[in-house]
Write a structure and sequence with these properties.
By secondary structure, this protein is an alpha/beta fold. Helix content is 41%, strand content 23%. A five-stranded mixed beta sheet has the order 2-1-3-4-5. α1 (3-19) packs parallel to α6.
């Protein structure tokens, strides 16, 4: 599989999240070209404000691999990660995040306010490589816009 396939899969997880009554965000974690975990954002259903797609993926992968070190993985997300998900990625040593839709295109309330992800990332001892792949941005945004209505 290729990068666009993984982003497309993360976007499909966001669609699944909406179908389940959750927030329009999804994520997949890839290691050695294989999806090792996938997640949706249903914190509202689970009564867990930390249950974002990215955090769900990190939890699943760590349990599956019996480690807290996810070095060598890539996190693909439908929406740019919030500060909590970015920090969880740092704590689990995820070296790279690829996302489809920029936070600049959605309501700042989705992120708990306005802040610069790049500035937060630069403060980490090991900054994460963050890639905005716009190939599927409109597809991810379409799901978000439908959910908002």
């Amino acid at each position: 599989m290729q990068q666009n396939d993984f982003i497309n899969e993360a976007i499909e997880k966001s669609r699944q999240s909406v179908s389940s009554g959750g927030f329009p965000a999804g994520a997949v974690l890839v290691k050695d070209g294989q999806v090792i975990a996938s997640g949706i954002s249903i914190g509202n259903i689970l009564h867990d404000p930390t249950s974002h797609g990215e955090v769900s993926v990190i939890r699943e992968a760590c349990k599956k691999l019996a480690t807290t070190d996810l070095s060598g993985t890539v996190l693909y997300t439908s929406l740019e990660p919030c500060s909590m998900c970015l920090s969880a990625s740092m704590w689990s040593s995820i070296p790279k995040i690829v996302f489809a839709c920029s936070k600049e295109l959605v309501d700042p309330a989705f992120y708990g306010g306005k802040y610069e992800t790049e500035i937060i990332n630069k403060t980490f001892i090991k900054p994460i490589e963050i890639v905005h792949d716009k190939t599927y941005q409109s597809m991810a945004l379409e799901i978000i816009n439908k959910w908002q209505k």
